[in-house]
TrEMBL record:
<dbReference type="GO" id="GO:0006313">
    <property type="term" value="P:DNA transposition"/>
</dbReference>
<dbReference type="Pfam" id="PF01609">
    <property type="entry name" value="DDE_Tnp_1"/>
</dbReference>
<feature type="domain" description="Transposase IS4-like">
    <location>
        <begin position="63"/>
        <end position="150"/>
    </location>
</feature>
<protein>
    <submittedName>
        <fullName>Tn5741 family transposase</fullName>
    </submittedName>
</protein>
<dbReference type="GO" id="GO:0004803">
    <property type="term" value="F:transposase activity"/>
</dbReference>
<dbReference type="GO" id="GO:0003677">
    <property type="term" value="F:DNA binding"/>
</dbReference>
<dbReference type="InterPro" id="IPR002559">
    <property type="entry name" value="Transposase_11"/>
</dbReference>
Length: 184
């Protein structure tokens, strides 16, 4: 019942306070979810599910290639102003998710920032986190927004091959710009 309540909040984007009366009291459900998050249970569950999907797709458990990109999302009116910003390139006010995914699109690492933070600045912790969790990654692809410091730093320090696409628009990206080597 508690997991169903947590799933309801996540799937529907409702506030904890607005849980339907069919579920336990929202404070108990929130405490239940928070305990699982703090103990790392949710991260472990995510990792195990990702490994199973990779195996089912005929891939090794450890990825050898990754893709880095960001997505700006609108912030709700009740989000604190200092945690959100304006992304002028995408014309969105809110937050930005910086994702590292494997070739199947499964999430390897995430960083969330205000939307006004440049991709190249926000991505600095991602390669280190990626290297700590997945030492097998040898190829990282990124779009032009990640030019400069993170690309050079990742290549040199982490001994990974990095490459950038000239366009961040998926429809106009050069052919093969998001393809990864076989075995990734």
């Amino acid at each position: 019942m508690m997991l169903d309540a947590v799933r309801h909040v996540v799937d529907n984007g409702v506030k904890w306070v607005n849980l339907p009366c069919d579920f336990p009291p929202y404070r108990r459900v929130h405490a239940f979810a928070r305990r699982r998050q703090v103990t790392g249970l949710l991260d472990g569950l995510h990792d195990r599910l990702r490994d199973k999907v990779r195996q089912k797709e005929g891939r090794g458990v450890d990825p050898t290639a990754a893709i880095v990109d960001s997505q700006s999302v609108r912030a709700a009116a009740n989000i604190a102003r200092f945690t959100s910003g304006w992304d002028g390139g995408k014309r969105v006010g809110g937050r930005k998710r910086h994702l590292v995914a494997d070739c199947l699109g499964l999430v390897l690492a995430v960083a969330v920032t205000a939307a006004n933070v440049q991709d190249r600045d926000a991505a600095v912790p991602l390669p280190e986190r990626l290297r700590r969790l997945y030492f097998s990654v040898r190829l990282v692809r990124a779009d032009g927004g990640y030019a400069g410091r993170p690309v050079g730093w990742a290549s040199g320090r982490l001994r990974t091959s990095t490459s950038r696409s000239r366009s961040s628009n998926a429809r106009t990206a050069p052919r093969g710009s998001w393809c990864c080597r076989a075995g990734g």
